[in-house]
Structure formats: structure tokens, C-alpha cells
Amino acid sequence: MINWHDVDTVLLDMDGTLLDLYFDNYFWQEYLPMHWGEKHGLDAETAKRELIPRFKSREGTLSWYCLDFWSSELNIDVLKLKADIEHLIQIRPSAQEFLETLVSRGKMPVMVTNAHEDLVTMKLEKTGIGKYFREVVSSHRLGFPKEESGFWHSLKEGMEFVPAKTMLIDDNLTVLRTARTYGITNLFSIARPDSRAPVRDTAEFTAIHDFRDVL
After folding, report:
1. What is the distance between the alpha carbons of residues 20 and 200, in angstroms, rounded to a whole number?
2. Region 32-56: what's the mean pLDDT?
3. pLDDT exceeds 80 at position 1
4. Confidence class of residue 149 from pLDDT cuts 50, 70 and 90?
5. pLDDT 10s digits, 202-215
6. How would DSSP label each residue in 32-53?
7. CB count, 10 Å around CB of 110?
8. Pairing between strand 110-113 and 206-208?
9. For residues 169 and 13, is the Cβ–Cβ distance under 8 A?
């Protein structure tokens, strides 16, 4: 249970937290390799064997989340490919109800995401959840991914919040650990970021299975 009287600021991740991570997982693991492979005369499995290690080598860096970087690296329009399957962008169960309740309680949340600004725009337009946020902050704007302490210091410079009275919900355990080191104390993770994947171990962080559990 959460003592909401002790929470002044609510920070929410987007992909895997408010939105189903299946869209992103399917795109990077299946859809992009298939199209990139076709362009280079490779079958999907061969393309995946070539691309997945390249993706993993960038994990946790700003370039991993940057559509411009991968468009240049792979010579393919990544945003256009994302738009091809935007019908797969879905809100996680009870996420909209959670956002509505936060707003009704006077706690306008802030979105903190590693997603590229163009992709954030696409997803907010598709889902309509942008109206619930006081501010939407992309790591690309601050110059650091959320996995790095620089993100949290830069966030604090541009937005007043007290770490000890701030809640962060994120599916990325590395992000949560970095935020904890910075001083944020109310930390929660997501039990099943991808609706088509199994429930996962959220390690030392309390897992949210359904947002109604924390209302």
C-alpha cells in the first residue's frame, strides 16, 4: 500500500509501464530484422543473428533509444517502420484509470521516458494519454538516458521535486537502481511489461501487476 500523503511528485515511464512493451519487443526482435533482411537479401533469422548483437551492444545508452541513430546505422527509416505497426501500440490494463485517478487527486504526473521524441509523439497521439501529464520529459532532451545519474540531476535542474517525496514507476530495473542512488525512495516496477511474455522477477522492487493494486 502507498501512503499518497507522502507523495508529491509521480514520475511514470512510458514503454513497458503505461504502454504494452509488446509493440517495441516485436518491432526490434521481428519486424525491423525482417525488413532490414529483405533489403540485404537475408532471411529473417540470419538478419536477427546480425542485428541483435548490435542492438545489445548499445543497451542502456542514449543511442540505443535514438531512432535517428538506428536509421543512419541501418540505412532504413525506423520511424516509418514503427508507423507501419502502430496498431500494436496499446495501453496496459488499468493504466488509464490510474492516470485519471492521479489527476483527480491533484497529482498531475510527469512522464519520464527514454523514447525518442518523435516516437513519444506517435504514441501519445495514438493512445490519447498525453492530456494526463503535467510534463513529458524525454532523455534525448536532457542528453542522458535514465540509466545514468546525469539524467536525474538534469531533471532536477529543470523541475522542482523532492526525491524522498517522489514516486517512480518503471519497468527497467537499472533505471530504478539509478533513481534510488539519486535519492528517490518510492520505487515500483512492472510484473509483466510485455503482455505476451511471462511475469518476470522484479528483484528488490515491489511489482505492480495491475495499477488498481496501488490506487
Report:
1. 14
2. 96
3. no
4. very high
5. 999 999 999 998 88
6. HHHHHHHHTT--HHHHHHHHHH
7. 18
8. unpaired
9. yes
Q: How far apart are CA 157 and CA 138, in angstroms?
A: 14
Distance from the first to the final alpha carbon of the chain: 8
Kindly report the length of the chain. Answer: 215
42-51 pLDDT, tens digit each = 999 999 999 9
Cβ distance 202 to 173 under 8 Å?
A: yes
Answer yes or no: CATH 3.40.50.720 is held by domain 4-20+90-214.
Answer: no
Domain with CATH 3.40.50.1000 in the chain: 4-20+90-214
Q: Which phi and psi (to 5°) does residue 208 adopt?
A: -100, 120
C-beta pairs of 45-53 under 8 Å, 24+ apart in sequence: none
Q: Which residues are catalytic?
A: 6
Contact by Cβ (8 Å): 55, 61:
no
Cα 47 from Cα 87, distance rounded (Å): 24
For the chain, how big is the Rg over CA atoms in Å? 17
Give 152-212 as a 3 state SS string: HHHHHHHCCCCHHHEEEECCCHHHHHHHHHHCCCEEEEECCCCCCCCCCCCCCCEEECCHH
